[in-house]
Amino acid sequence: MVFLAFLASLAVTGAPGRLIAADAPAAEVPRQGRGPGGGRGYGRGQWDDPRFIADREAYQFLLQHRDTIRRTVTPRPDGVETLTESDDPKVAGRIQEHVASMHDRVKEGRVIHMRDPLFREVFRHREQIVIEITDTEKGVRVIETSDDPHVAKLIKAHAEVVSKFIENGPAEVRRNHPVP
Ligand code: HEM
């Protein structure tokens, strides 16, 4: 599964400007629910989604190798431009894989990490978010924007949280982040 996701990410390597768009009201997202075992559910979508396991494995790998990742976030009035890279080719590939997969999730509304209010709000407004991804030699450049000022703020807040994931690792993933 991870391999397939990796292949999928390779398939888009070098294809700049994959865009998702649309000016539309906040999208419907699955409500939070309980997992099949009656445990804590972080969104019903997650339990229906076999790709969740691969995605979790991929971001855990990134968290484990975060000391090899460097990232810059450049704010712009309508969102951010980010550059996230690693000199380790394996990590660079996983960054590309993660971003391609998260892009698909935003596009298709396959929610993840809904326990965190900020992620919940990002997915609620997914149809107002435009993401342009360019794979670089060592990672990805992402331009993420919205015409809606509230959504632009969400995009900036999310980008800062990704930087904190790199800085603080799993402890930061366990934290909730406020909606700006
Ligand atoms: C070291 C760990 C991680 C790295 C390096 C990383 C990297 C990235 C990058 C580069 C983006 C594109 C947007 C941007 O550049 O701001 C992104 C988007 C995203 N990431 Fe991660 N991420 C990490 C951990 C996580 C974790 C732990 C989760 C959730 C459990 C997550 C969920 C998402 C989602 C949902 C998006 C798409 C939403 C959006 O871009 O607005 N990431 N990540």
What report would you give on this structure?
This protein has one domain (2-27, 41-174). It is globular and about 35 Å long. Helix 1 (2-11) crosses helix 4 (89-108) and helix 5 (117-124) packs across helix 6 (149-168). The protein has a four-stranded antiparallel β-sheet, with helices on one face. The chain has helices spanning 2-11, 44-47, 51-64, 89-108, 117-124, 149-168, 170-174, and strands at residues 69-76, 79-86, 130-136, 139-145. Mean pLDDT is 84; it is low at 1-25 and 31-43. The termini are far apart. The protein has 180 residues and is α+β, with helices and mostly antiparallel strands. The longest helix has 20 residues, at 89-108. The protein binds protoporphyrin IX containing FE. The site of protoporphyrin IX containing FE has 27 residues, from helix 3, strand 2, helix 4, helix 5 and strand 4. Residues 59, 62-63, 66, 69, 82, 84, 95, 98-99, 102, 105-106, 112-113, 119, 122, 140, 142, 144, 155, 158-159, 162, 165-166, 173 line the site of protoporphyrin IX containing FE.
